[in-house]
């Protein structure tokens, strides 16, 4: 969008929304997941210490994965921007209303992608991932309800159209499908040692549950 507006977002997205997007909407869930989520349990890592070699071999962080992530981010950015842009180009929706869609859609996409890569869920992770999406929507309502700020009432205008909800669905699906396909293909056809160990843990958990059920 900045390519059309001399590298400024303020014509569509308020400064408050831009600030909250960086500080709150996308950073907090990532930090919480980074702290609480883990690939494998301590028991598995102690039983198979060679799994630590994955980090030494740069299997999770390397140039190829970085380039792939950048290409994926570019695709997602194009989808998030151009779908609403062309859909509302000939409509009466103003720029502030369109900016609210551009503010909400990336938050949903980022948190949905983060959710797809989480291995061990707990209530704290659930609260931050899904709560962030809810908090973003609430903040947009609050910001657009303040009459002295630009874009007053914008979110109420655009949410009243069916196209808004359809675009949200299409954007999420279109941005997530490539990530899902790559992830499924890689884990099914070229699984790493960590992925194999993770599946072993799942089987052990299911066996434990069955044995407990049988004993009861």
From TrEMBL:
Q: Which residues cross the membrane?
A: 18-36, 65-87, 99-116, 123-143, 163-182
The P-type ATPase C-terminal domain extends over: 1-192
Location of the protein in the cell: Membrane
- Report membrane topology: Multi-pass membrane protein
Keyword check for NAD, yes or no: no
Q: Name one GO molecular function term.
A: metal ion binding
Keywords assigned by UniProt, alphabetized: Magnesium, Membrane, Metal-binding, Transmembrane, Transmembrane helix
Q: Quote the cellular component terms of the Gene Ontology held in the record.
A: plasma membrane
Alphabetical list of Pfam families matching this protein? PhoLip_ATPase_C
Q: Which GO terms describe its biological process?
A: phospholipid translocation
Q: Does the keyword Membrane apply?
A: yes
Q: What is this protein called?
A: P-type ATPase C-terminal domain-containing protein
């Amino acid at each position: 969008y900045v390519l059309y507006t001399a590298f400024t977002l303020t014509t569509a997205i308020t400064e408050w929304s831009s600030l909250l997007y960086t500080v709150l909407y996308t950073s907090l869930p990532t930090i919480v997941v980074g702290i609480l989520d883990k690939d494998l349990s301590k028991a598995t890592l102690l039983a198979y210490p060679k799994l630590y070699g994955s980090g030494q071999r740069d299997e999770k962080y390397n140039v190829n994965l970085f380039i792939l992530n950048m290409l994926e981010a570019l695709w997602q950015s194009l989808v998030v921007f151009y779908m609403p842009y062309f859909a509302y180009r000939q409509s009466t929706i103003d720029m502030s209303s369109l900016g609210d869609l551009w503010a909400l859609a990336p938050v949903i996409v980022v948190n949905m992608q983060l959710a797809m890569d989480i291995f061990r869920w707990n209530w704290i992770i659930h609260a931050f991932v899904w709560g962030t999406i809810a908090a973003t929507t609430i903040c947009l309502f609050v910001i657009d309800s303040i009459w002295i700020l630009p874009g007053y009432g914008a979110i109420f205008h655009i949410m009243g159209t069916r196209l808004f909800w359809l675009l949200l669905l299409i954007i999420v699906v279109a941005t997530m499908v490539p990530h899902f396909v790559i992830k499924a293909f890689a884990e099914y056809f070229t699984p790493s040692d960590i992925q194999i160990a993770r599946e072993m843990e799942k089987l052990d958990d299911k066996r434990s549950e069955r044995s407990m059920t049988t004993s009861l």
